[in-house]
Design a protein that fits this description.
237 residues, alpha/beta, TIM Barrel, eight-stranded parallel barrel, globular, cytoplasm
Length: 237
Amino acid sequence: MKYTLDNFARLIDHTNLHADATEADMKKLCDEAKKYHFKMVAINQVQSKFCSEQLKGTDIDTGAAIAFPLGQQTIESKVFDTKDAIKNGANEIDYVINITELKAKNYDYIKREMQEMVAVCHEHNIPCKVIFENCYLTKEEIKKLAEIAKEVKPDFIKTSTGFGTSGAKVEDVKLMKSVVGDDVKVKAAGGIRNSDDFLAMVRAGADRIGCSAGVKIYEALKRRMEDDHVDSIEIER
């Protein structure tokens, strides 16, 4: 598949999830998203109203992170926070699974959590992304989660919060994609800071990239295309 610069931009969830982010930081994030035509701004739930107002009239989404970054909330709390984020303008949701329940092999709980989160998002025609936080999981746990997702069908499964012990890995993206196939998309996030890492994740099967280095990556891809005198880059997947 051939990707233009704008195609690449539309893969990027432009991210600022820092606890000390100011209103000026959020405005900068939204202004950059508009300038580069990124797909979404990824922000903490409390920033939903401000960012959705900044992005009003554009095709750039406001993505609220739910139970972030630990996932240690009840299903009911996660659903409530999701509804609150949507009420305040969020039109994409990324939530962190309950890793404790996964480690306990309480797969019915994980499935019910995913079903309820997907249901509330899809009721509002909003994409739901399920954050695995792979740095804490075994390969078998990643595979099991992906199998549950293949059955429940959220819009995306996501590698990481970026706040764990490590971020996205190519091998994990490949594993996740190998399980869900075309039924669910994969988002790579965490530690993706340059264009080589970005392209590697896309080649591995990622359809969305969450990163705070979106501007740097965009500019690097632009220079690469200019140097090669091309208007697109072909990627085999």
